[in-house]
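Example pasted here:
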Amino acid sequence: MDIATLFVSHGSPMMVLDETPARDFLKGLGGRIGKPRAVLAVSAHWQTLEPALGFAAWPDKINDIYGFPPELYQMRYEPPGAPEVAARAADLLGEPVRRDPGAGIDHAIWSVMSLIWPDADVPVVPLSVLRGPGAREHWELGRRLRPLVAEGVLVMGTGAATHGLEDYFRRPAGGPVEPHVQEFTDWLARTAEAGLTESLLNYRRLAPEAGRNHPTEDHLMPFFVALGAASGGKARRLHHSVDSGILAMDAYGFP
């Protein structure tokens, strides 16, 4: 598959256990994209005031989840880190950047990587999203990281195409896709596949129901890092499904 960078929606950690279309997609993705030299995983669940990179040689699995079955806490997923890739990324980002030797991999990372590369043989470097700055600033972070792509590193954002948790928790499981979710995901796919970067960067103003689908912006910011690290061509929506009519599990590949 001819992609340079990737965005995936991590959804609930139950995706690791439950049979869903998104789980099936991720389980088949590794065979389609192969094994990169390393993954620079941009996690919506690691939020910092300045860019932070994980420098651990063997990053710990962080169980930042609550009230789930014991199997998820007991599950082992132990890919190596890549401190040399982290150092290269830090150089590209420039100061200020936080080099964190103790950073582990949270569920936004291990839930998807354990499905894509179940043998835990692809090194991973976690990268935070910024608390406060929006789409353009994260796109610029991605632009600085673009040389990594030519060096065999997959820049992978892991977040959510939609993240209206209040709507999600107040409705029963299952059910049809809510219109406001369909409108937003249709716009995102149409705009990304047309290569309209400026429109994407102004999604908060231009996309229908942007605020309802993303009451906070953190879970879409990994999308913009992946977008910035790519060459600027037209994206491809690789997967579309919706959990309980609210949480879109879309994935995108960028050339």
User: Anything to note?
Assistant: Residues 5-45+109-254 form a domain with the Protocatechuate 4,5-dioxygenase; Chain B fold (CATH 3.40.830.10). The chain has one domain: 5-45+109-254.
